[in-house]
Amino acid sequence: MIIQKQYKFYAAHRNEELTDKCRNLHGHRYGLICHFEVERTGALTTLFGDFDAQIEPHLKEHYDHGMLINKSDPLYETLKEHERRTGERFRFKEFDAPTTVENLAFTLFSEIIEMGFRLSHIEVRETDSSVITYTREDWIADNRDRSRLSGEKPSAVRE
Ligand SMILES: Nc1nc2c(c(=O)[nH]1)N=C([C@H](O)[C@H](O)COP(=O)(O)OP(=O)(O)OP(=O)(O)O)CN2
């Protein structure tokens, strides 16, 4: 059986590797739809609230009104320097690769299964017209070859 749960958060990001509008610092209302595989053992499977109790605080603490940022983006060091200089603290969600919606899906999928839930797939909405479906097979493939996240060739095939 599949239970579908929907969440949202607001966050800033940019894609520093692109040369179009996406390079600009901008924000999104990200949507997340989780499709959980659950077992029926009685009248109920997993309580809806059991998902919310873990996922909502996680999104609030690490993502909401924060900034998704690639630690290799030069802007990251600039903002860290601002923090050091002023004592101000920003909510950064740090990535080891560009903050594309594909990489966000990998990160969210990893974090949610780490909580102990079984996911068949998730859908991540970045804009009104753009949503990706990210499956367990995608997650297995991304884990097998992490160079897919950064777009680097794996070391075995690098010239
Ligand atoms: N495969 C991907 N393509 C794009 C990504 C991405 O993460 N993966 N990201 C972007 C940009 O971040 C951008 O903010 C979204 O772009 P786009 O859908 O083109 O934005 P619109 O303003 O045109 O959205 P509408 O809802 O259609 O107005 C780009 N591509």
Automatic annotation (TrEMBL):
Cofactors (names): Zn(2+)
Pathway connected to this protein: Purine metabolism; 7-cyano-7-deazaguanine biosynthesis
Reaction equations catalysed: 7,8-dihydroneopterin 3'-triphosphate + H2O = 6-carboxy-5,6,7,8-tetrahydropterin + triphosphate + acetaldehyde + 2 H(+)
UniProtKB keywords: Lyase, Metal-binding, Zinc
MF terms (GO), sorted A to Z: 6-carboxytetrahydropterin synthase activity; metal ion binding
Alphabetical list of InterPro entries matching this protein: 6-PTP_synth/QueD, 6-PTP_synth/QueD_sf
E.C. no: 4.1.2.50
PANTHER family: 6-PYRUVOYL TETRAHYDROBIOPTERIN SYNTHASE (PTHR12589:SF7), PYRUVOYL TETRAHYDROBIOPTERIN SYNTHASE (PTHR12589)
Recorded family membership: Belongs to the PTPS family. QueD subfamily.
Official protein name in the record: 6-carboxy-5,6,7,8-tetrahydropterin synthase
Source taxonomy: Bacteria, Pseudomonadati, Planctomycetota, Planctomycetia, Pirellulales
